[in-house]
Write a structure and sequence with these properties.
The complex is a heterodimer of chains A (about 250) and B (about 260). Chain A is built from 9 helices and 10 strands. Chain A has about 250 residues and is an alpha/beta fold. Chain A starts with 5 loop residues before the first strand and ends with a helix. Chain A is about 40% helix and about 25% strand. With about 260 residues, chain B is mainly alpha-helical. Chain B is elongated, with a radius of gyration of 22 Å. The chains are: A alpha/beta (about 250), B mainly alpha (about 260). The interface between A and B is medium-sized, with 23 and 14 residues.
Chain lengths: ~250, ~260
């Protein structure tokens, strides 16, 4: 059995008196798309932030290709993190930079690429996401959908091996939402990166996923494919994806 | 009862110690990035524009009116001893040794320092600092280091500007309004100011620049970690207010300490 790219081993995380993660066990294979679903406030973003080192676990371990993230040397950790991109829920675009500068930032700050190389790469990504012609616009001048695309372009511009998407379609209309799903899917096929997506877009997001994980009460209570979750053989998973029906049933009893 | 008392005293004290340690770490983490290649020339120039050029008008007004008030007050005080001719020296020394560095630092804190704390605070709350971290960009290097360099350049220059404008303000009120001979006024300015006075003012402005930029950037950077547990707009507001108040207090305390070494 091949070694998983990322492995959560009994990860616990507590904020004050609130235990958010209560023993997470999850493996993510290289080149796959894993979708993490769960109720709002169940700790999905916290889970994601463990991978990139924004949050450290209180107990347990996060393994990267078999090595503990905490035991990697500074050089190894930097090398790993260089290959990760994170697309934030609220985009986290820099207000004082233009769209072009936002997308180019990881290249201008962390590589020795020339200005013309950076310009070409950024424009390639912008063309791929249909956001040409907004180079000089600031985030405040862009619509919600445009901002998402700029954030996605910034996540893709470094050709990462792993992209973490934290609710990439929040606040978008159904057309834009499907656009973003399509873009993620297309780019994933094109570049073969590993993706972990936290999302509430059920069941649309399942079309992208090779693995779906349901986080409930601090634990991964279900892992499986689209077909497995839609077959509704798992009580909690079924209740979650059919939230409305469960509420309806409860109101009848 | 005793344990509650110890807790009531100990908690704020331990928070203060922790915060001071973090502030010191923050300052050295920023300074450590200054010689690291590639140098951040563009970002530093932007900050020089923001801290320095955009503060010129405020410093001009403050310096001019401070000098004019000194000229008036000095004249009425000195004239009772029949030594109004010494007005030029009194105005110049008060400005160069004390009022120039202190008032310049306080005005920059109000105009640029508060903006720094608010801007960095908003970046913290909207996950922009986390985004830098995930892009392998050192947030302290990116946000703080150019501001340190800009402050080190701007504070002494603005202080000098304040001093010169203040001396001219004193000239307006002392010579043009109250009638002290212009040549005597300027002659006393030149005679009474020694190199050590200018050097002392320069040292103060350098120290104040580090105080203001460190406290303001630090309060913004850790806006999410205030002891009241406030986040969002309230957290940014607390960070900004705290930055201005703390900077002003530290400026005045350090002014006394430096003066006591210089005199």
């Amino acid at each position: 059995m091949p070694q998983p790219f990322i492995e959560f081993k009994n990860v616990h995380k507590r904020f004050g008196n609130l235990e958010v993660l209560k023993g997470i066990n999850l493996t993510i294979d290289k080149g796959t798309v894993t979708v993490v679903i769960g109720k709002s406030g169940s700790g999905k973003s916290v889970l994601l932030k463990h991978i990139v080192g924004l949050i450290r676990e209180d107990e347990g371990d996060v393994l990267i290709q078999g090595k503990s993230l905490n035991r990697l040397s500074e050089k190894q950790a930097m090398q790993f993190k260089k290959n990760i991109s994170y697309m934030f829920q609220d985009n986290a675009l820099f207000d004082f930079l233009t769209a072009f500068e936002n997308i180019a930032l990881p290249l201008t700050e962390t590589t020795r690429m020339t200005a013309s190389q950076i310009q070409k790469k950024v424009h390639d990504r912008m063309a791929g996401l249909s956001i040409e012609g907004i180079d000089h616009k600031y985030p405040s001048e862009l619509s919600g959908g445009m901002k998402k695309r700029v954030a996605l372009a910034r996540a893709l511009v470094t050709d990462p091996e792993l992209i973490l998407f934290d609710e990439p379609t929040t606040g978008l209309d159904p057309v834009r939402k499907n656009d973003v799903h399509h873009m993620i899917s297309e780019f994933q096929k094109q570049f073969g990166f590993t993706a972990v997506i936290v999302s509430h877009d059920i069941p649309d997001i399942f079309d992208l996923a090779q693995q779906i994980a349901l986080l409930d009460d601090g634990k991964i209570v279900f892992k499986g494919t689209r077909q497995e979750i839609m077959a509704c053989n798992h009580e909690t998973a079924c209740a979650f994806i059919r939230g409305r029906e469960v509420l309806y049933d409860r109101s009848k009893t | 009862m005793t344990s509650r008392l110890i807790e009531a005293v100990g908690n704020p004290f331990s928070r203060y110690i922790e915060s001071t340690g973090r502030l010191t770490w923050f300052l050295f983490a920023g300074i450590r990035q200054i010689p690291v290649f590639p140098f951040q020339f563009g970002k530093t120039m932007d900050q020089i524009w923001f801290i320095g050029t955009k503060s010129l008008f405020v410093i001009l007004l403050t310096g001019l009116f401070t000098g004019m008030v000194l000229g008036l007050q000095g004249y009425y005080t000195l004239v009772t001893f029949g030594s109004e001719a010494a007005l030029g020296g009194a105005v110049a020394l008060s400005l160069i040794r004390e009022l120039g560095p202190v008032l310049t630092a306080i005005m920059i804190t109000a105009r640029a320092g508060s903006a720094m704390a608010a801007e960095i605070g908003v970046m913290r709350m909207s996950e922009q600092i986390d985004a830098l971290f995930t892009m392998q960009i050192n947030p302290i290097r990116f946000l703080f280091t150019p501001r340190i360099l800009a402050a080190l350049v701007c504070f002494p220059l603005l202080t000098s500007f304040f001093d010169v404008v203040g001396i001219i303000g004193g000239f307006f009120s002392g010579s043009l309004l109250m009638g002290i001979n212009e040549t005597v006024y300027m002659d006393k300015v030149i005679q009474s100011v020694k190199f050590m006075d200018i050097w002392g003012g320069f040292i103060k402005s350098i120290v104040f620049s580090l105080i203001v930029v460190t406290i303001c950037c630090y309060r913004g950077y850790f806006a999410h970690m205030n002891h009241q547990g406030q986040s969002g707009a309230k957290g940014v507001s607390l960070a900004t207010t705290g930055a201005v108040v703390q900077s002003c207090i530290f400026i005045l305390i350090c002014d006394y300490i430096i003066t006591s070494f210089l005199v």
